Amino acid sequence: MKNENENNSYPIKFPHAEDIEKIAQLLQANQQSGLTEQQVQKGIKDYGWNSYKAQKQQSIFLILLAQFKSPIVLLLVVAATLSFSFQHWLEGFSIIAVLFITAALGFLMELQARRSMSALKQMDVSVSKVIRDHWVVEVPSERIVPGDIVLLEAGDMVPADGRLFELHQLEADESALTGESLPVTKRLESLIKNTPLAEQSNMVFKGTAIVNGNAKVLVTGTGMHTELGKITSLVEAAEQSSTPLEKKLQGLTKKLIWITSALALIFIATGALQGKDIYLIVETALALAVAAIPEGLPIVATIALTYGMLRMAKKNVLIKRLAAVETLGGINTIFTDKTGTLTENKIEVSNIYIFDEYIAVEKNKISTENNRVIMDQLLLISTLCNNAVIREKGTNEKELGDPIEIALLQFVADNHIDSDKINQQYPRISEEAFSSETKVMGTLHKNGSTNFVAAKGAVEVLIEKCTTYSKGDTIEILTKKEKELFLQKAEEIQAQGTRVLAFAFKEATGISTDKFLQDLTFSGFIGFLDPPRMDVIGALQSCREAGIRVIMITGDHPATALHIAEKIKLSDKENIVITGKELESNPPEKLLFAATIFARVDPKQKLDMVSLYQKKGDIVAMTGDGINDAPALKKADIGIAMGLRGTQVAKETAEMVLKDDSFISIVSAIEQGRAIFQNIKRFLVYLLSCNLSEIFIVFGYGLFNFSFSILPMQILFLNLVTDIFPALALGMGKGNELTMKNGPRNPAEAIVVKKDWISIIVYALLMALPIMIVSWYCSSYLQYEPEVCNNITFFSLALAQLWHVFNLSSNKISFIKNEITCNAFVWYALLLCIIIIAVFYNLAPLNEILGLRMIDPTVWLIIIGTSFSPVLLIQLLKRVVKIID
Ligand code: ADP
Ligand code: MG
Hints:
Blueprint: H1 20-26, H2 37-47, H3 60-66, H4 71-85, H5 89-123, E1 127-132, E2 135-140, E3 149-153, E4 161-173, H6 175-178, E5 184-185, E6 203-204, E7 209-221, H7 227-230, H8 232-239, H9 244-273, H10 278-292, H11 297-314, E8 317-319, H12 322-328, E9 333-336, E10 348-354, E11 357-362, E12 365-366, H13 372-384, H14 403-414, H15 419-425, E13 428-432, E14 440-447, E15 450-457, H16 459-462, E16 466-470, E17 475-477, H17 480-494, E18 499-508, E19 520-529, H18 536-545, E20 549-553, H19 558-567, E21 577-579, H20 580-584, H21 589-594, E22 597-599, H22 603-615, E23 620-624, H23 630-635, E24 638-642, H24 648-653, E25 656-658, H25 663-703, H26 712-722, H27 724-730, H28 754-780, H29 786-803, H30 824-842, H31 846-849, H32 857-881
Parallel strand pairs: 9-20, 9-23, 16-19, 20-22, 21-22, 23-24, 24-25
Antiparallel strand pairs: 1-2, 1-3, 3-7, 4-5, 4-6, 4-7, 8-25, 10-11, 10-19, 11-12, 13-14, 14-15, 15-18, 16-17, 18-19
């Protein structure tokens, strides 16, 4: 992203102190119709993109240079110097070549990781609602320019700095900017020039969050010319820290460096005592050190992580932090909401209840002409008490807003009501915004000389704000008896899985703008059908098998929640429902841990449940969409925001965003998370066992005083050329059918646990032993020359290490068809390695560097036979004797 003209001066220095009309005029903005596409183009040219200066891209050269800073390079330099000082020129130059190959490989891998990261970043674009060419549209926030009209509502992140010109109960959380944690109430009045930032109440600022109300904003500053843009270098610096996985790998690497150094010293000391050629001893010790240090670990891990994340992104799951992948595999409790996640989110009006009658609704059409007055009341309230936007059929713009409100607008349109006309006749003067805590929404309108209040919300909450109810032509007192009747009827419908919203209104003059949700007239309620997602049943089943508990946590009514839970077989036992009310009376923890449904809970209680389960030691994932869900999302080990329904604040807080809102995606993300972790573990075990086998061989030959050894250059070749590619391929595996059949792993635990160390040692021994025995036999009994015996050792080990990848499949799965044999990368890697080996064997001076010579077909037969023996032995132990797995 280039901001060519970012220094173009902004026409308005103090937007909070200017007259709004003047600002609009200076920016050639139109508060009603917004900018035209042409103006936007020009704006982008003049002011640049609305983004922070692309993080100072580490230059390619610097990345390359960084490759030479590693300990392995240092060791290689020492080795090369040593060779030169002994006038082993060819060897010296070869080591330098190896050094460059290592650096180049590291460099390419790092580039690859960066490319994946930036691809992931690009998928995470935020959008904003703006008015352009008379239409409300969603555009990428990057394309907002000064003069744009932005619409904000609770839950939005402010995309640019701007001056407010219309607002309803707007409150913003500006802590990101000012550090003040209490929300600030916004006003329209203009201010004096030197008002401090924290008191500029007629402005909103990029990067802050709207926590209440809604507003229209005239954008005055974008990109680096926003208040946050000015301090953004600070923000970026804080983000660069390593993930727990990287830390663990770095720790492991460090440990191995110490062990190896100790081994190398022992090796040098014993060799010197035995009176061996000191040059060869030191060189071999260095080669061993290079061999044993898993230098590429962190970067291979990063590649495995980013590759896995890209694969998840294709499956509608966006992971925002690398570290989250690791936690994902450890999740054992999922708190999921209902609407849209467990249900289809194809919300449609299914029935209506008014004072004494159910009215079925088919295909969104009211099927009766009776009680027309109440029907019109319901349609009027649905239109007015609504913040969604739907566009005429035929235009390809999608609907914007809360799904239930979109459903209502659709319902209104399908019953031939002209909502535009109604909105013009009843201009809105105030709004009580919906929140998951109050569970109601109300709007106050002007209608000629009188006022009109439109309200909707949860039945039991809204009915408490009513004193009368509508019987069509008359309005009656709402007695206790009627109240109970309404509630009972609502209960009946909700027990069938219908989501219910109640509607109420008031007509009077001079209603105050801040307390208008009282003494209302109850009109009736509308039931919405939101069918359960039937494909969730399978996902829930696999959660059970994977040792993951799924608990529904919803703001909806317990009866609706229970019905859906039963339809999707949430639990294989009887569901235990606990309501928010019951939570208030502190039920025993045992009951809370047994619950499968929490209904009518508010966001605060969601947070409490996360804390409670975490205290028990659970690793908790929590879904959320609203602004009030942010604390619970943050507290959860993995916060999951809904891509379709979610507010920007929720998406910003969460570790993971579901692009399709579906529960299935959560489960597939967990599966992927587990698979990625298995991959990382697998290539670790692979690399470490290969390295250890080399160490065994070098030590063994030394210990038994063989007349030949394995050469330093050969060890380098094995580690830096032939081990890397299979390891990388293992890092890209897709996981197997067992991934979701075992319990979750404990994220606190080390990556390589005791059991793995045992496998590593057994693998290494079984690789080294046959090769040592065969080489020794060839030397002692077949009287082969030392060079040939050395070649037998080298080739057998090189090939044995290649075949060793197949040992890393689980013994519970077929040896022929498993995630390793089905991983195309593995086959490419093997092919590549065999080609490289063949090239080195055939091409001078490469073969000279490695001390290779032409060998007879019989010797090749011995080599190939030997190279397969570790696989045979290991598989025997794994599958028949079952000592290791
Ligand atoms: P959930 O998303 O878990 O189903 P919410 O917290 O969104 O729960 O909603 C809780 C209750 O608030 C709903 O059951 C409904 O009665 C009411 N409600 C939901 N959305 C709106 C809205 N846009 N306006 C008014 N009331 C609403
Ligand atoms: Mg909701």
